[in-house]
Design brief:
It contains 13 helices and 13 strands. It is an alpha/beta fold. The two termini are 30 Å apart.
Length: 358
């Protein structure tokens, strides 16, 4: 039996690159999934919205609730703009699948929280919405992350045996002994962007400033000694860890911007190299904004001896939005979209909350 779903995927990552929107067709036939990316675009946050999201963890409960509703409206309006721009008939869309924007992620305390009100998206677009893909897994004892691996292996396994996404956080997934392993390895773009933001730049283009610096060995050794790297998976990182554990180390060391950026890139390269080499990954597909950072990729290559595959720009930039759309397809097909082998939950689950516009 064949099922076809046309789904709008929405992804807003911790690095605040913007709102990634995809329109993808997912096909379920003969117990196999395939997909075709039809349209994709990123809509930038306004400077005001970006600054508000950066300090969202400091907002009062009332302010955060208000921001949740506002962001849902913004997501919905962005989808309407997307549909108009690409002449997409909303009647052909089965659902919108939205990751939301992560504010709190503390699975060890039993909660994770992504804002971007699903009901407001549904009311704004008049299209059903599925969101909140992480909460059920956390309540089942899992990390609620990473969620992308189910898409890696059902949609991309013919390309590589290891999948690295460098967004705000760097996460890995790979297949070993017929079991999917996936977890956050280390920071990604987030601390690099936070540092470069202090001199008024949004990001270090292709890692050019980092490439001009020299690695601060004492700083590198201190970063490599952080407790997270001794923990066994499943494990995940959030912005709280960056703010409380990682950034304070960077701030303690007095050095130039270029040297600090060079050291963070070296650290990321080493941590990724450690895992990919240890797990004997042969082909590593790299996606996310970090795939555009030439210096960071050089640091990874220096520590990983297998083949690195950098796909086309659409897959680099929109793979997460494609996969969150796919989580919506799995939800509609009543298949598991959160895997216990990956998150550490007590069982697989079909996660998400459906919001109807009527």
């Amino acid at each position: 039996m064949k099922s076809n779903y046309t789904i709008i995927g929405i992804m807003s990552g911790t690095s605040l690159d913007g709102i990634d929107i995809t329109c993808t067709e997912y096909i379920w036939e003969e117990n196999t999934w395939s997909f075709e990316l039809l349209f994709c675009k990123t809509y930038n946050y306004s400077e005001e919205d970006s600054e508000t999201l950066k300090i969202a963890t400091q907002l009062s409960a009332a302010e955060l609730i208000q921001l949740d509703k506002k962001l849902g409206k913004l997501f919905g309006e962005s989808v309407l703009l997307f549909l108009e721009e690409f002449s997409i008939n909303k009647k052909n869309i089965d659902t919108i699948a939205s990751h939301g924007h992560t504010i709190f992620h503390q699975p060890e305390k039993g909660f994770t929280y992504q804002i971007g009100c699903g009901t407001n998206i549904a009311l704004t677009t008049n299209i059903p919405v599925i969101n909140d893909f992480r909460t059920k897994d956390v309540l089942l004892g899992g990390q609620g992350a990473p969620l992308v691996p189910v898409g890696d292996f059902l949609l991309f396994s013919s390309i590589a045996d290891g999948f690295l996404n460098i967004g705000g956080i760097s996460n890995i997934s790979y297949l070993q002994e017929q079991k999917i392993h996936a977890y956050d390895i280390c920071p990604g773009n987030l601390p690099l962007n936070l540092l470069i933001n202090t001199i008024g730049k949004p990001y270090d283009h292709q890692g050019e400033i980092a490439a001009s610096g020299k690695v601060n060995i004492p700083l590198l050794e201190t970063l490599n000694s952080l407790d997270f790297y001794t923990q066994n998976p499943p494990k995940s990182l959030g912005i709280e860890w960056i703010n409380e554990q990682f950034s304070p180390v960077i701030e303690r060391f007095e050095d130039s911007m270029a040297n600090k950026l060079a050291t963070i890139c070296a650290h990321i390269g080493m941590q990724i190299g450690n895992i990919t080499t240890q797990q004997k990954i042969k082909k590593l597909l790299i996606t996310g904004g970090g795939a555009h950072n030439s210096h960071l990729i050089t640091c990874i290559k220096a520590n990983f001896k297998g083949e690195i595959i950098i796909p086309n720009n659409q897959i680099i930039e929109f793979k997460e939005a494609i996969i969150f759309g796919f989580l919506g397809a799995l939800y509609l097909e009543k298949q598991a979209n959160c895997l216990q082998d990956v998150t550490g939950a007590i069982r697989n689950s079909c996660s998400g909350i459906l919001h109807l516009p009527n």
